[in-house]
Amino acid sequence: MTVDQILILLILAVTIVLFIWGPWRHDMVALASLLGCVFVGLIEPRDAFAGFGHPAVVTVACVLILSRGLQNTGAMDALAHKVVPKKGGITLAIAALTALGAGMSGFMNNVGAMALLMPVATDLADRYGLPPGKVLMPLSFGTILGGMTTLIGTPPNLIVSGFRASAGAGSYGMFDFTPVGLVVALVGVLFVALIGWRLVPARPQAGAGSFDTGRYLTEALVGEKSAAIGKSLAELVKMIGDEDAQVIGLVHNNARVSTAMPGLRVRAGDLLVIESEPESLAAVLSNLGLTLAADPENGDREKKAAAQAEQAPEDVGDTGENAKQNTQQDAQSAEKQRAFRAQVTPGPVRKISDLGPLGAPPQRAREEGSSAPPADGTRDREEKEDRRARDRAEVVLRELVVLPDSFLIGRTAENLRLAGRYEINLLALSRQGHRSVKRLRSTMLKGGDALLMMGTEENLRSFANEQRCVPLAQRDIAIPNREKAYVALVAMGAAVAGAAFGLLPAAISFATCVLAFMALKVVPLRSMYEAIDGSVVVLLGALIAVAEVMSTTGAADVVAESMLDNLAQGNPVFALVLILLVTMTLSDFMNNAATAAVMCAIALSASEQLGVNPDSFLMAVAIGASCAFLTPVGHQNNTLILSPGGFKFGDYWPMGLPMEIIVVAVSVPMLLWVWPL
Predict the structure, then answer these.
(1) Torsions phi, psi of 629, nearest 5?
(2) How far apart are CA 272 and CA 455, in angstroms?
(3) Residue from 75, 346, 358, 395 nearest 215 by CA
(4) Phi and psi for 219 in degrees, rounded to 5?
(5) Staple 404 to which of 327, 396, 447, 661, CB 3.0 to 4.6 Å?
(6) What beta strand segments (E) does 129-260 contain?
(7) In the prediction, which pLDDT does 550 show?
(8) Mean pLDDT, the chain, as a whole number?
(9) β-pairing, 216-222 with 350-351?
(10) What residues does 470 pair with on adjacent strands?
């Protein structure tokens, strides 16, 4: 071997050890590997950061932004509640949830899909009396399987496509991964639903009973295009009954109407008081076409709807109410509605503070109702001040899970200055099923930790967004916005079609979609770059350059030749299986994107030496890099469920090992059939 080959193999060996050992974050390891190549002269300084302009890196960043847009509109959340059955056995429910996670992961970031469906999974576990891990692990495996079905499903697919283009064969198409990936995913989902979930160790979530969020009370405005218009209260109960929600109050103009009159019909401008589980609220609002009354944007619409209601001469439903009830002034109606909001809240039911305050305290509302209404500008200022005051006064508890790429990892509550910087407090920490209540301030946080936090909703939400945490059971609910949801789905569909039919390169197609999301405000401009996982971008940009050195120095040829001569004995099928197994093994202990970058160079060299189709070997790398089922560190989704599921490090292999055996048994014949040697 040459000196350059020895140097790159040493750097690569140290990189793999650091990935598995885990003293540094994966992006730090990748950057150190890149700089090491520069310092020893393997990469010219002017070419060091060329990998950051690679189409795979651009596409990954775009997909992360598009995933955030799909989440913001609430379209995926509403879809989840419609797809997961409310009745039937646990097998059917797990099959539907896992299949949904796999399908969503094909077109959005699979970590985002996992975070979106986690509350649905925990709710499902509660409904059937199962430990949460029995549902969370199948969901995690399903989202991992779904990522291998499309070009944008997971970063390893994009890396594999990039290496194919570098080899002069062109990039893969949007659905070139589908024939093999879809079959593997379908078989995997069937295994999970029928057998796999039963193999998951029954680990009760630590302190689950003390984290009960209860049911929520919220208010929704019946807009002009709402499906609730003209429906009786009895009909509404049937429409939302499957969502585990009920209407417990109604405001028509300035008066509260008893829900004991089931024949009463709803009209535009009415206010429905709905009690529901937090996970069900988005589906209720979407199905009935309602908007939150607490939404500031509803101010003008509420006045307009009330004005139209005043002009309507017909009676309200079957109650025979006189049209004289419609002659109240807008301002007076709004004041009394606000007073009602505060009065209808029963003791044991909490308001859905995620969605904003629901009104003033009763005493203040009565005082305001007895005085002349202030000017619009003054009222707006007063309402903003009141809202801030109520937020400051309302202290809640929230359980947050530390994401694998969170900025909290390796830090303590003491050096984070939670009380001074965020005005919140850390009350408890749950790690692998064990809660720590001593010396919390000096405990270093890890990915997958569950944190019990206390503070106001606004402060907790700001902390979670800034530090990359995800609420577990009580969470920020994506309120459906039908107009933006349609825009997001159409734009995303156009981007997928552009990449699938070869009209545009994938990076250009999805970058165009990102621009459309920005222009149409599907993703707020202020939070657009927050959707990009910087650590993934650094990891990909750095390791792509390092992997190129493997090819240019001939080190990949040396490794491939050693594997072929000593293990595969020159047999192409054995070599294909060996590449798949080595990739799967590395992916269980190091980042899947890093695994793909390292193994692609070796796979291309092996196929060249054997004189066979390189696509078979590249696809084997794509499948293997996506199949990290044995450990909690192999994939971010496995880390995400570690603490919420109460799992230990060794709890993944009882279902993960059979899953990996199934993947090998199914994927090898499919690879040989779809991509013949």
Answers:
(1) -120, 0
(2) 29
(3) 346
(4) -120, 135
(5) 447
(6) 216-222, 245-252, 255-257
(7) 81
(8) 75
(9) parallel
(10) 401
Q: What is the residue whose two structure tokens read 């060329």?
A: 50
Give pTM, 2 decimals: 0.61
Q: Return the number of other C-beta atoms located less than 10 Å from residue 200's C-beta.
A: 24
Q: Is there a contact between 416 and 390 (Cβ–Cβ < 8 Å)?
A: no
Q: Is 41 helix (H, G, I), strand (E, B) or coil?
A: coil
The two three-digit tokens of residue 586, written as one number: 């590395």
Buried b (16+ CB within 10 A) or exposed e, 61-86: bbbbbbbbbbbbbbbbbbbbbeebee
**Cα 585 to Cα 17, 529, 578, 634, distances in angstroms:** 14, 33, 11, 9
Measured distance CA(369)–CA(378) in Å, rounded: 16
Q: Report whether 143 contacts 638 (CB < 8 A).
A: no
Separation of alpha carbons 179 and 670, rounded Å: 8
What H or E segment, with its residue span, contains residue 273? strand 271-276
Helix (H, G, I), strand (E, B) or coil at 347: coil
Q: Of how many residues is the chain composed?
A: 677
Q: Could you give the CA distance from residue 530 to residue 82 in angstroms, rounded to a whole number?
A: 29
User: What does the block give as tokens for 534?
Assistant: 């910087």
pLDDT tens profile 530-554: 778 787 788 888 888 887 888 788 8
Give the DSSP H/E element, type plus range, for residue 276.
Answer: strand 271-276
Please report, for the chain, how many H helices and E strands are present, in that order: 27, 11
Angle, CA of 473, 475 and 476, to the nearest 5°: 165
